[in-house]
Amino acid sequence: MLEVLRKKKYEILFNETIGATPKFWEPFCYRIQSDGASEDVAWLGSHPAVGEFMGEYEVIRTMGNYSFTLRNTRYGTAILLGDTPGRTRGQQALDAIPRQQADAMTSKWRERFTTLLTGGTAAACFTTSNFFATSHTIGSFTSYSNLLTGSGIADLTQIQTDIDAARAALLKTKHDNNVDYFNMSLGRLTVLCPVALESAFLQLSKSGYISATENVVYKGMFDVLALPELDATDAKDWYLVAPGGTSKMPFILSVVQEPISGTFIKANSFPQQTVFASYCDFGFGYGDPRTIIKVNNS
Questions:
Q1: Which of 12, 188, 194, 253 has a CA 20 to 30 Å removed from the CA of 88?
Q2: pLDDT digit string, tens, across residues 218-248
Q3: Looking at the predicted structure, is the pLDDT value of residue 64 above 80?
Q4: In what order do the strands lie in the sheet with 147-149?
Q5: What is the average per-residue pLDDT within 54-65?
């Protein structure tokens, strides 16, 4: 009975940690529930004329000449919980194990997302161009660029100039039938940036005044999300993301299995040893390049 209760506690601690971990990538991803090793998301290039995703039936019916496959990957970890001869583990140490496994699982999701983000200048999306590129063709909407050359990051004036340019580029996006994609209203944007640039963007977004001039343009325009991973790879680059809504998302998250945990008895172990295992199965892929701009200062 004690062993049953201990197993249950491990699962509770694991799930609590998973639930408490911020999943910052979710607002930028269109989520698909998957049941296989990969997902064909060719429908990205064949939206109905109104530009909204109409459900699974429409995904199948409107798939056009595009081809783009998102692959899922399974990740797992396991650790022995049973005491080994001559050594016992304190309860606090045992309680830390499921929390550590949960942290490791969510770290893998974070790693996959940031790798996708920073790799977008060298990896193709459904338009056949790299996800961040100076020229995309989507139906009759041609020559769209979501990769801008920045003015620099030395002062706020340069960043302001680039925000204006990136926002203008988003406003000019079209559906594949050349109808305005955002209907001339972007709503509240999000800046993804290295930690090194966080203070500059926060100053623009939150300050009432900039250099003694009233900040009536940028205050409240965007939220700021600083990702430490960008400091190592894109230390001078940043991204402007438009709020997508139903299917207008820069990335796709395909989920076969959310992180899940369980226990089992190790085969042929004496004394008997319990294994606590966890795994997840998912994939991130590139979605709609019309919803995100990369400003390159490298």
A1: 12
A2: 988 999 999 999 999 889 999 999 976 666 7
A3: no
A4: 147-149, 292-296, 238-241, 189-193, 222-226
A5: 38
Region label for 69, one of left (φ > 0), alpha (ψ between -120 and 50) or beta (otherwise): beta
Tens-place pLDDT, residues 102-113:
888 888 889 999
CA torsion sign for 162, 165, 169, 171 is positive
Q: DSSP per residue over 233-246, as a string?
A: H-TT-EEEE----S
Range of the domain at 31: 1-298
Three-class DSSP category at 20: helix
Question: What integer pLDDT is reported at residue 21 of this predicted model?
Answer: 86
Q: Tokens representing 137?
A: 């063709």
Position 184 scores a pLDDT of 62
Higher pLDDT, 212 or 52: 212
Pairing of strands 251-265, 274-286: antiparallel
Long-range contacts of 177-182 (CB under 8 A, 24+ apart): 177/49, 177/139, 177/140, 177/141, 178/139, 178/140, 178/141, 179/49, 179/51, 181/51, 181/248, 181/290, 182/242
d(CA 255, CA 32): 6
The dihedral through the CA atoms of 131, 137, 141, 147 has a sign that is positive
Q: Using the predicted structure, report yes or no on whether residue 169 has a pLDDT greater than 80.
A: yes
DSSP per position, 194-235: -HHHHHHHHHHHH-SEETTEE--SSTTTEEEEE-HHHHHH-T
What is the per-residue pLDDT for 195?
Answer: 96
Q: What CA–CA distance (Å, rounded) separates 2 from 71?
A: 41
Name, in order, each residue with C-beta under 8 angstroms of 218's C-beta and a sequence gap of 6 or more. Answer: 160, 163, 204, 205, 210
Domains of the chain: total: 1
- CATH number, position 76: 3.90.1690
**Spatial distance between the Cα atoms of 162 and 170, rounded to a whole number of angstroms:** 12
User: Which of 252, 289, 51 lies closest to 170 in space, CA to CA?
Assistant: 289
